[in-house]
Design a protein that fits this description.
The protein is an alpha/beta fold and 522 residues long. The chain has helices at residues 2-26, 31-50, 52-60, 62-90, 107-114, 132-144, 159-164, 189-200, 232-240, 274-285, 303-306, 390-396, 457-468, 491-521, and strands at 120-125, 148-153, 172-177, 180-184, 205-210, 243-248, 260-266, 289-293, 311-313, 317-320, 336-337, 339-340, 354-355, 362-364, 372-379, 384-387, 407-408, 412-420, 425-426, 429-430, 435-441. Helices cover 38% and strands 19% of the residues. The chain starts with a helix and ends with a helix.
């Protein structure tokens, strides 16, 4: 009988551990856990009462006292660690320590997730032992929004579900929302976010690009050494954010279409016709939104089009002699901007660059409608100026600052103008709830195929479109494709690493250990 009583203590501890362990795994304290822990406690009490004399004798020993102190310390440390882990599991917090923040979602993605109004579900079709990168990425999405759910399906184990979604290859992820479905075939935050935008929004807002005056062409693709001045990348990026993009020849219209959410005039070479300007003015007066981009002479300045809105277009070329552009192979005629006005469009742009190839400066007119509010959106640095001798610049490429003639930097390259609209309607929205939104850039090249992916050029352009379309949750810094940070080694470098890391260093450590051992023996 005494022999069996000795084992009671172990049985009691095991039962208590089983009960607590199952609770930590399931986070639910059910009847099974309750019975198990109570049984374990009863058995432990019986064990203590049956062995009271032996326990008292054991703890009175000197060796036991020292051992008890160490045991108590270890138990306390273990208890603290368990408690910290328990709290951490209930209050999950993530920190990305990588330099490029490659395991963090972009500001735009987080903003979109936090503003989700509808349920969105992602179904990833991967083999059971694959898709860890996608799993990690979708986990980040779910972490930032309770409206986003995801699941993984092995097409081999659940062919019916794969057939239901028309899945024909591994690695396909289906994004669903509002009865709409989008499929993506690679692990890409940009693709997932664009798909979420498309399935979580009702309808598509239309962005019109004018044509007929030598404007930038949204259908010109970048191919080898051609198409750098096209807007195909800009068009695709706009469409990815759930807008519809169309061309419009204003000369053949009676007015700007009522379904136009944003009107874009991108670098016309010749001036707009008088009736076209009247259409644009009427559209703006009724609370429309327009993005107007003009280039230096001889391109059209559209000065009389933007003048009623308090913006003056200067007849110059902005030159930047700060030397920053040289880091990217850019000359002084491509000013680099790092100063931005306080606006949702440029939020988060501090100390990031945007570039403008052949830009002219703008300024706010001294006399303007008091109801118009302005933001100087983009400014060049102090080492820039506006060159007014365009003939000398274009023909002889000779430049020099002329006091009293040229204007010192910082110079404004983009201006935002807003004005509340009253007693009118457009697109069925009353004037009391609307305001005219106008953005004017002194350059149209910054959003071309050749410059769209330079630093934050693309983000600036897309933010301008989203803000004009009153889609503020899309105004942010967008996800980028992860950089390939692999190190490529030559055969000589590989051999050197092998001999140093695998042979010499370990042998040196072993040798040092042997020397110390021999000396101690002596």
């Amino acid at each position: 009988m005494k022999k069996y009583l000795d084992y009671l203590g172990y049985v009691g501890v095991v039962l208590i551990v089983i009960s607590l362990g199952s609770y930590l795994i399931t986070s639910v304290f059910k009847l099974f856990q309750t019975i198990t822990i109570l049984t374990g406690l009863v058995i432990l009490i019986v064990f203590v009462l049956a062995n009271l004399a032996r326990i008292r004798e054991f703890f009175s020993k000197r060796s036991t006292k020292y051992g008890t102190n160490a045991t108590v310390t270890a138990v306390l440390m273990l208890t603290i660690l368990v408690m910290l882990n328990f709290v951490a599991s209930r209050h999950n917090y993530r920190i990305d320590t990588t330099k490029a923040r490659q395991f963090s979602l972009s500001k735009q993605t987080i903003k979109i997730l936090k503003n989700l109004k509808v349920d969105v579900k992602a179904t990833a079709f991967f083999k059971s032992d694959a898709g860890q990168r996608m799993r990690d990425l979708l986990e980040e999405y779910a972490y930032h929004s309770k409206k986003f759910k995801y699941e993984f399906v092995d097409p081999d184990k659940k062919p019916a579900i794969a057939k239901q979604y028309g899945i024909t290859s591994y690695g396909t992820t289906v994004i669903e929302g509002l009865g709409k479905v989008e499929k993506i075939n690679k692990v890409s935050e940009q693709d997932i976010t664009n798909a979420i935008i498309k399935v979580s929004r009702k309808g598509k807002k239309i962005v019109y690009f004018t044509e007929g005056h030598g404007e930038k062409d949204i259908d010109v693709q970048l191919q080898q050494n051609r198409g750098a001045d096209g807007y195909a990348l800009a068009k695709k990026a706009i469409e990815n954010e759930n807008y519809e993009v169309k061309k419009i020849l204003l000369a053949s219209e009676k007015k700007v279409p009522s379904d136009c959410k944003v009107l874009v005039i991108a670098g016309p070479q010749t001036d707009l016709l008088a009736n076209e300007k009247d259409m644009v003015q009427e559209y703006l007066k009724k609370g429309g939104s327009a993005l107007i981009m003009v280039d230096p002479s001889p391109s059209a300045s559209l000065a009389d089009l933007v003048s009623p809105w308090g913006i003056e277009v200067n007849n110059d070329v902005v030159l930047d002699f700060s030397g920053v552009g040289q880091l990217f192979g850019a000359g002084p005629a491509i000013p680099i901007a790092i100063k931005y006005g306080k606006s949702p469009i440029t939020e988060g742009f501090q100390n990031v660059m945007t570039a403008y190839s052949l830009a002219r400066s703008l300024k706010i007119k001294k006399e303007h409608d008091s109801g118009i509010n302005f933001i100087e959106l983009v400014k060049t640095g102090a080492n820039s100026w506006g060159e007014t001798d365009l003939q000398l610049f274009y023909k002889e490429r000779k430049v020099g600052y002329d006091e009293g003639k040229d204007k010192r930097g910082p110079l404004t390259i983009a201006i935002v103008a807003t004005k509340k609209v009253e007693n009118d309607t457009i697109n069925g929205i009353s004037g009391e709830k609307r305001k005219t939104r106008l953005i004017v850039f002194g350059d149209s090249d910054f959003a071309t195929n050749g410059w769209f992916h330079f630093q934050r050029n693309g983000d600036l352009f897309l933010n301008a479109i989203s803000w004009l379309a009153e889609e503020e949750d899309l105004v942010s810094i967008r996800p980028r494709e992860p950089e390939d940070r692999r190190v490529t080694l030559t055969k000589a470098q590989s051999r050197k690493i092998f001999w140093l890391g695998v042979i010499l260093f370990p042998m040196a450590i072993v040798g040092a250990g042997m020397v110390i051992y021999i000396r101690r023996r002596k």
